[in-house]
Batch of 3 targets.
Target 1
Amino acid sequence: YMYLRIHTGKVNTKLICEKVLQAILRQNITYFDYVGAGEVATRIHTDTHLVQQLISEKVALVVDFLSAFFVGFILAYSQSSCLALAISSIFLCIVITSTIMNKLTARYTQ
């Protein structure tokens, strides 16, 4: 499973790199007066590396954790519905707290 994600990330990164390079080469020649060749290469490498990390590692981890979370809820409801309802109320508190924290983090990082 992880191999498929890593391979997909590499293929998509290669395609994105080619598209970005084509777009840069279509720029007006004065664009290169303000931006050096090393800066263009560094930007392409940095951006495509971030995309590859997102596709190959982060998405796979999110899918794994979310599936484990929902399977846990399904098993909890099948074993003991009263305990699962108590856990569900705690889940609502976690969602509210994480929403508030995300808003505060976004506000103070700007």
Target 2
Amino acid sequence: MPSCSAIPATSTRSTIPSLRAGTGSSRTYRACRSPWSERSSPVSESSRRSFAPRSATSRRSPASARYARARSARGSAACRSTTSSIGICSSSPGSFECGRTLKHARPLVAAFAVFGLYWGSWAACLPAIQRQTSASDAQLGLALLCVAVASLPAMLAAGRLADLFGARLVPVALTAFGIAVAFPGRAHSLPALYVSLAFVGVGTGALDVAINAQAATIEARHGVRVMDGLHAGFSIGVLCGGVGAGLLRGAGAHPSWILGGVAVLVLLTALFNLALSTPPEPAQRRARLARPLLVVGGVLAVAFLVESGLEGWSALFLERTLDSGPAISGLGPGLFAAAMASGRLLSQRVEGPPVATRMLFAGVAAAAGLIVSATAQHSLVALAGFVIAGGGLALSAPTLFGVAGRLGGAGGRGSALSTVAILGYLGFLVGPPLIGAVSSASSLRGGFLFLCSMAVVLALCAPFLRESPG
């Protein structure tokens, strides 16, 4: 691509003779390759040839040598200073290409955001939906299981479709998801709730794979890092949806109105994503990467197990174990989601370390936060632990989805991401009931200590992750 990504040791050198009278010295510039570097260089090839004898025979004074070294250092610093919020180093013309890449990613940001907006709104509306369908806890759990069961085959199919159709799958998946999410809020019986949530599961699986596959394609084609920022959009959507839907319910809004409004936003986002015109990538001959993908999927399953367990049980831990009131216990999942959004936004703006380092940090931070929460004697200490754990776990999903996209290669990213997403989602489903079983056998503190041990496993898995097929 026209932009350059942190290549100080291999950047292009061009020798341009000095035009200052009386010096006759040549200067060596270090430049990032740009779209204009080859066809519109400030000095033509014929000019270089005409100046070559003079440059070869001239002698550089000590002053001019110092000046050249200073200019070279300033040039390298300037290249580094153009690092954008997604960690790409470009020359000035290359920054135009970077800006164009970010422009192409904006519809995808909206897709991630409305995806999270729905699930945040759904969580806030769930008590009212349980009442209007007269569902018991066990029946509601079975209804939620319909989402998971329906999403798994949809993920598998969406991976292949993403390889075939590229970015064109994103608005289609958004449309299917937007139509499906309008109906659960209108369900007044258990069969209607089961069927509507099964359709939501199909839309969820397809959309999850489609948007992550497109994010991986943008990273590969443009040499930029956008996965952290896009997943931050999802986390912000969850937070805004939960808070907004809670306020609307407090004002008397019916769940069907709230979820119907979110459905309209999803459909509008589908129209916005019609601007995504990235063609599907041609398939390349490559070895099957089943084992590396299984490793990535297994690590993602562990990360999602910890994440879902903490999300599902943090409020109950505060209320039952630390005798907190509803106002304080509600802060548990809220602060956890806010910490994940903040961690992803911060990670997006910082040049990323290697994958193993990121996942080691994620596991260690999650384990530290969970041990603080599990041993806390006051709700504020437990909340601080949730924030620490959320900041660490924020890195896991975008990092691992990015690895899966790179392992899949051109023409295979969708299938690779669907494999990893299915395995990860299994961990997400297992988390809450597994913590419930451990807590029943011991206590909620024991359940959170079990989550801490899973976070340690996450950190220990970091060295086994491969960043590329090679």
Target 3
Amino acid sequence: MTTAPYLGLRPTGPGGPPAPVGREELLARLERALQTRGRALLTGPAGVGKTELALAAATRAEARGETVLWLATLPSDREIPGASAAALVASVAATVSLARPGGRRREPRPSDKASTGRTPTAPEASAVFDELPGPQRTAVAMLCREAPLDAGGWDPIALRLGIAQILRTLTRRGPVLLVVDGVQHVDADSADLLRFALHLAPPALRVAAVETPEPYGETDEPYRAPHRPDDPHAAHLWVPSEADVLLVPPLHADEIAELLIHHRLPSRMAGRIHRASGGNPRLALAVGRSLADARTPVHHAEALTLSGRARDLARQLLGAAPLAVRETLLLAALALRPSSTLVRRAGRPNAEADLAAAERAGLVSLAEDGSVTFTAGLLPSTLVHDACWAERSAGHAALAEVVDDPVEAVRHRALATDSPDENLAAEVADAADLARR
């Protein structure tokens, strides 16, 4: 979890910083949702730019003199009771103690740190906590491990009321924006505390939550329905109807070109980078940097040779899928015209469920006729690149038995073997003649 405030990372001009590339309209929608309803959920696949969008809204809020609390979670936080709530309290202390009159902030100084290694709160922050009644203050101190835990733990009612009172006290000083980055990782205890606090909070407290949906179940339940914004597990912090849900989509090709220029990367291959990345900004930048580092001109008819960070990011996206889903995706990557029916006939009896899970993860899109399209060209190329010869051979052999097109069947048989075969060579030549007609 990240407890330090994000503030001060970016200089701001009048009106705040510009929107991230391609996100002007979405940022305006986010700000309208926060102003009118006070709750917004940004959702979309990893790397699509949700955090960047939330950061832009937060930086604009700070430029207006608002108090901004930034709570970033990690997957491990979900297993630590109270982790996110403790991080929020620490963020309050750090943010308020660095505040100056008029909404300006001062930078932390080495002298802020006491000899004990504990960062003391400034009078402004101390006042927020001093307003708590004794039992609530004790419960909050126990949560943050600044007081010994009693044998029975903290008083849950006092802690609930204490967290709510802290947020209410902040709003008396002016508008407050709370950003929860990675709401899907908030532990259950913290979710309960925050949900109660937000229920009692005045309108001056607005909340933007950032969520990367979790499309896969546990190993014993790999095909469960995904966490959706109307699922209480995904929207930890409020009744679903209270929030506007904003899906962050991929960027268009012209926006990818602008993104590359913004990061001083060559944009002449923006179209191919867009196809390789599927419009995912993080993937697109990784592909652009991979091509820039190669320093070798790529002909428009040549395949992109990618390595390093681009491949690693694709592996991260694919690696989150269960093994069964990855094996099904490999067959789809090997096929010229993949479909759920073709992959199932090639030996994947749960193809439909596997591909549906992959679609929820943003790896593929499924048409009504069952045809499969990878959302980013880098994904199938990485699947094939990382598969061993035996896996590729077995996949091509299975596909050769079930494809309807004789030319495709010959192609798969040829790719399934590395031994000389005169008969197969003749079939390949005949198939080439047939394809040219």
